[in-house]
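Hey,

Quick one before I head out. I ran the complex with guanosine-5',3'-tetraphosphate overnight. Inputs first:
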Amino acid sequence: MSYAPETRRRRTFAIISHPDAGKTTLTEKLLLFSGAIQIAGAVKGRKASRHATSDWMEIEKQRGISVASSVMQMLYREHVINLLDTPGHKDFSEDTYRVLTAVDSALMVIDAANGVEAQTRRLIEVCRQRDTPIITFVNKMDREVRDPLDIMDEVERELGMPCCPMTWPVGQGKSFGGIINLRTKTMTVFESGSERRPQDFEAIPLSDEATLRARFGAEFDAALESMELAVGASPAWDHEAFLAGKLTPVFFGSGVNNFGVMEVLDALVDMAPPPGPRVSTLEVNKQPVVKTIQPEDEGFAGVVFKVQANMDANHRDRIAFVRVASGKYTPGMKLKVQRTSKELRPTSVVTFMSQRREAVEEAYAGDIIGFTTHGGVQLGDTITDGANLQFTGLPFFAPEMFMTVVLKNPLRTKQLQQGLAQLGEEGAIQVFKPDAGGNMLLGAVGQLQFEVVQHRLKAEYDADVRLEGCQYTGARWITADNAADLRAFTDAYPLRLAHDAADTLAYLCTSPYDVRLAQERFPKIHFHPLREHA
Ligand code: G4P
């Protein structure tokens, strides 16, 4: 039996926004209206209980940011929708980037008063690089916000792609009357409150102008006028352009009031793409063998895009989040990790049904499954039911800041090593072991990563460490086409070399000139600012 009917009904998307734009609220409403959860407040409630049960998440609580990202699955209109949350804080952009490699589209939430904010901008860049289709939701229309034309203009500029309005607001703030659905040519009337179900909102056909004018007066006329301007200035809806990441549909609403949310849920089903093909590049005898894997291909294959310590502090196990790329997962299946050729023996395999983790019965391309293991899996690993495949594209960025780790109690060396190895494999931080010996180095893209790691080393591994500044300001991963060139280079810089968690050679620099000078001296050496997969 072909897997195509299953893969075609899957939608896997990430929700991205600047903190406070309303991502959590919208997530919750999407879950509520798809029937995945029954009561409002459940998502926030889950956030709170996580704080209570997991020590290291204290950091998250203290700072009011989302350190970890999570996965939720819902069923809507016969479609399986996988929603991936992304950490909002800029210091965790690497983690977010990896989450974005696991999705087929993104839902961008923006605050109508603030427009496109700093953190959203970075996430957009990542989506743009991958041509990920983006759906835009302009939230908080019940507040005094900016002119919708102005917002559209900004979204166009920031995204570098035209907007196509799908709904259009009538008024805003106190005089927010509702939204006009451009496709169905009806106006849905706004009412505030979080109890209402989407189908309970009153809908009036646009053709009934007399009624609309009588009820919404000048706001209605102004909305028609600005809508006409917006439509005139935007291209017609072009599904192919959207799928190519060259056009974004824009929806307006108010998440907290359940308003305009159903339109977004329907857009995910009607517009967002099902899983597409993925490329495997496997080195065989030093030659890359490139293979395109289709979602409906028979063999099971997936890629680890995130590894997270189990929330339960009493257990050392970790969950490897795998995005299924092809085939079908069934319990008891024999799986191997490409990197090590070893069999993967998870203690459990779960799916993420909104609030609960449940044992997976079956999973297809697009789905996210979590393998609980005691080790043996790293970020970027490809997992298959036998075939030799290696998916590429999971990035590690060269760190921009470094600290050395000094253990306060030398008797805890083993714990420190174990902690650093595991946190490095998780991608929480990059760990470098200097070839010349000495203290381990931690490399990060954002300052906060250091604090999280310091906290987790103490809380989870009982390794109390001091982090000290050091002279390094960057690193480049090193490769060469032949061993002699590499040897000449390593002989020249014995004190500048280190190996990372994946045992890849890196050159540590103290200034941007370093790399340039080294490159001039050794033109045959490749200096990589980005390393792909483990
Ligand atoms: P985030 O995940 O993107 O950080 O945002 P979150 O959903 O937590 O929302 C941030 C704040 O914005 C919350 O208020 C939330 O209630 C509010 N909000 C979300 N959608 C809307 C909307 O459509 N209209 C208005 N007026 N507010 C909205 P809070 O005071 O921080 O939290 P809470 O006490 O209300 O939960």
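DSSP finds 14 helices and 33 strands in the chain.

Talk tomorrow,
K.
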